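Quick one, tokens below:
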């Protein structure tokens, strides 16, 4: 009887509930087979220093930055499905090029995988700190995560976490001084009155249509970032 009472008093002392340092979230990109394909493509390109680099996930990858900026030297380093963990592993490709400017847009896939907001923001600081350490003259712009619109057809429901987008954007803005980067709010460019991604600018409430990218670039130019 005494043993039973002790067990009832200390129900947390079970092997399944022992605290460990293991992540409870997935840290593999959403399209893991796409990452090595893109990295192989990047490896074939000559290492040219001093260029502008757009760095991020599919939203960056889908941008025709050379045409948008009328600059054939701009480098696109977007990888569809990418998250902050996998981007940290590919930063050498960025820092070897000693870019003049880096525009980062990342985080929505992390949110889709339920990676905590504070962890995503912490990974952002690791990313910008490594770039600063290796390329001290590089100017870094951290762009806000874009709004979503879960009411549109074919919207992938695991991204229906608008509250985390807002929370992460607040963290990214608040860490700008610590990370020595410029925070760029592009959320407002594409949000309707309810904070949803304007349907005109998106395919399914997540990815941008080509018509949205000139608005993005024009804003960067008006702010003096390009």
């Amino acid at each position: 009887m005494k043993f039973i009472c002790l067990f009832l008093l200390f129900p947390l002392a079970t092997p399944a509930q022992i605290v460990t340092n293991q992540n409870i979230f997935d840290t593999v990109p959403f399209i893991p087979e796409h990452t090595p394909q893109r990295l192989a493509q990047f490896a074939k390109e000559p290492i040219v220093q001093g260029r502008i680099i757009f760095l991020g996930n599919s939203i960056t990858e889908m941008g025709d930055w050379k045409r948008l900026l009328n600059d054939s030297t701009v480098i696109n380093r977007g990888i569809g499905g990418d998250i902050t963990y996998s981007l940290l592993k590919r930063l050498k490709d960025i820092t070897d090029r000693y870019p003049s400017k880096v525009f980062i847009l990342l985080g929505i896939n992390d949110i889709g995988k339920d990676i905590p907001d504070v962890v995503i923001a912490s990974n952002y600081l690791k990313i910008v700190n490594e770039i600063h350490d290796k390329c001290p003259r590089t100017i870094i712009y951290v762009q806000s995560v874009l709004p979503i619109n879960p009411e549109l057809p074919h919207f992938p429901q695991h991204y229906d976490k608008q509250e985390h987008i807002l929370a992460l954007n607040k963290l990214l803005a608040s860490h700008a001084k610590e990370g020595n980067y410029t925070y760029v709010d592009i959320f407002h460019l594409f949000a309707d009155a309810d904070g949803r991604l304007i349907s005109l600018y998106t395919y399914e409430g997540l990815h941008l249509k080509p018509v949205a990218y000139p608005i993005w670039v024009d804003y960067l130019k008006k702010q003096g970032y390009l």
